[in-house]
Amino acid sequence: MSHSYKWGILSTGKIANHFAEGLTLLDAADIHAVGSRAIGTAERFADKWSITNAYGSYDELYNDKEVDIIYIGTPHNLHYQNTMDALSAGKHVLCEKAFALNANQARNMVELARHQGLFLMDAMWNRFQPWYTKVQEIISSGVLGELIHFKADLSFKFDFDPQHRLFNPDLGGGSLLDLGVYPLTLASAFMGAPDVVHSTVHKCSTGVDDQVTMILSYPEGASSELASSSRYTSKINPALFGSEGSLEIHGMIRSGRLTLHLPGKDPEVIEVPYVGNAYQYEAQAVMDMLDQNKLEHPLMPLEETVANLQIMDLIRKNAEIKYPEEHEAVI
Ligand SMILES: NC(=O)c1ccc[n+]([C@@H]2O[C@H](COP(=O)([O-])OP(=O)(O)OC[C@H]3O[C@@H](n4cnc5c(N)ncnc54)[C@H](OP(=O)(O)O)[C@@H]3O)[C@@H](O)[C@H]2O)c1
Predict the structure, then answer these.
(1) Ligand 1 atom 20: the closest Cα is on which residue?
(2) Is 288 strand, coil or helix?
C-alpha cells in the first residue's frame, strides 16, 4: 500500500477540473485544497470535488502546511512564478504544459526544485497513458525497423478572441506553446534530439503564432514533420514510419488504439484502453516517484522539457515572437 499524498490544486479552470476528476480515481490521492484568485470560484470548485479547504488566493495554498504536491493549471505566463512560489514554499510540483514560456524560465525552475530537494514535472500526461507504453514496446521490439520519420499535427480551429489564452500574448498565447508542444514532445520521445530545426510560422493580429509547421532532422538522417494551428482542425493521426513498417496512433493527447502496418499483412489494430479520463496516470506517476524518494520521472525528464522549450524558443525567435516578460530578457 503506497503512502497517501495531499494534493493542492492551483486554479479552477477547464483543465484543473479534468485533473481533479482524475485524482478522484486514486486511492493514494487526497485532494486537500484548492487555490483560486477568488474565494467564490475556489468554493464552487471545492464543493464540486469534495475538497475540504478552499482558498481565495494562491498564497494561501502555498502556505497550507499539509499540502504535499501542488498541481498548477494556470495560463502559460504564470507557470514560472507559480512553480517558483510553490517550490519555495516546500511543495512538490506538477506543472501544466507548456511548462514555461521559455527554456531560461524552465532552467530556473529545475534549479530551484533540485536546490529544494523537491519533485518537479512537466504535466505531459500522454506519456503515462497505456498507449504510450505500448508504442515504446513496439519500437523496442524492432518490428518497425529503423525509425525514419514521425508525422504529427495537433490543430483545432478556434474562433479568434484576442483575450483568450490561446491568442493573448500576456497569457503566453500561441498555438506552439498550447498545441505544438504535444507533437514536439512526442517527436523527442520517439526520435530523440534533432540537430536541425526548420519552421514556418503564421502570426495572428495579437502577434503570437496561430500556425506553425516544423521540420526536424536528426543526426542519423531521420526526420519529423510537425504542425500546430488554431486556424484549422486536423483529423490526421500521428504516425511513426520505420524501414520495416509503420504505426498509426489514434489520437495524440489521449488515445486508446494503435494500428500497426506491416508489408504483406493486414493492418493490426491494437486496443490500449484507458481508465477514467486518463489524467490520473500522470498523478499516480508523481506519487510513485515520491514513494521511491525520486525527484524526477524517467519518462518525462526535466532536461527533455528544457530541450523542447529551447526548440520552441528558436522557432519563436525566428518568427520574432516575444512575450511581454521577454522584452527585457535575452531568450
Ligand atoms: N493537459 C491537457 O490536456 C490540457 C488541456 C488544456 C489546457 N491545458 C493547459 O492547462 C493550462 C490551463 O488551461 P485551461 O484550458 O484550463 O485554461 P482556463 O480554463 O482558462 O483556466 C485557467 C485558470 O487559470 C487561472 N488564472 C489565473 N490568472 C488568469 C488569467 N489572467 N486569465 C485567465 N485565467 C487565469 C484561473 O483560475 P482561478 O480564477 O481559479 O485562479 C483560470 O480558471 C494551460 O497551461 C494549458 O496549456 C492542458
Answers:
(1) 13
(2) helix
Q: Is the pTM of this model over 0.85?
A: yes
pLDDT more than 90, % of the chain: 97
Strand ranges in 135-274 using DSSP code E only, listed in sequence order: 147-155, 196-203, 209-217, 223-229, 239-242, 246-249, 257-261, 268-271
- Most ligand 1 atoms within 8 A of CB, residue of 9, 10, 12, 15 to mutate: 15
pLDDT tens string 319-329 = 999 999 997 65
Contacts of 315 (CB under 8 A, 6+ apart): 176, 197, 199, 201, 212, 214
Architecture of domain 5-126+279-293: 3-Layer(aba) Sandwich (3.40)
| Distance of alpha carbon 107 from alpha carbon 307, whole angstroms | 10
CA–centroid distance, 79 to ligand 1, in Å, is: 10
Domain ranges for the chain, please list them. 5-126+279-293, 130-273
Pocket test for ligand 1, best of 19, 165, 181 (most atoms within 8 A of CB): 165
**136-193 pLDDT, tens per residue?**
999 999 999 999 999 999 999 999 999 999 999 999 999 999 999 999 999 999 999 9
CATH number of 130-273: 3.30.360.10
Q: Pick the residue whose CA is nearest to atom 15 on ligand 1.
A: 14
SS3 content of the chain, % helix, strand, coil (to 5): 35, 25, 40
Atom of ligand 1 minimally distant from the CA of 74: 24
| Pocket, ligand 1, Cβ cutoff 6 A | 11-16, 36-37, 41, 73-76, 78, 96-97, 123, 125, 165, 171, 178, 253
